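@channel sequence for tomorrow's demo:
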Amino acid sequence: MDNAMISKVEKARRYAEERTRMRVEALNVTFDGENSPHKVSLDNGAWHCDCEFFHLRGTCSHTMALERVLDGMLPELVS
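structure tokens (generated this afternoon):
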């Protein structure tokens, strides 16, 4: 590996540790739920999930799990 690549790898490690530098603005995820897979997305600060619970309540275990994983990296979310 050349010096330029080594420098980029070190910088990437540093960035990965500094999560506040990143903001996820759009995201599409296939979430392998206990019963079936679900499509979850984040767009314009709003979550969407194709599970029935989300359609009833506007939140679900899939979106809540992703909020935990992405803690500190999400924009102000629309309720």
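heads up for whoever presents: The longest strand covers residues 26-32.
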